[in-house]
Amino acid sequence: MENYIISGTFKAGHSWESFTKKISSQNEQNATDKIYSLIGSEHGLKRNFIRLDSITKE
Questions:
Q1: Which entry of 4, 10, 13, 25 is 20 to 30 Å from 54 by CA?
Q2: C-beta separation of 15 from 49 below 8 A
């Protein structure tokens, strides 16, 4: 498992909030799917309200 640091923004009401999360995953695609799932479930958002700015391998 590799660690990825993913940062981006999500829609929170009328504004966009920024986030940075550290995700442990097998590859970059699984890490992006996991972050969409986590942010979406925490804030009740669909994927089109979540923007990923950068994905870096730690």
A1: 13
A2: no
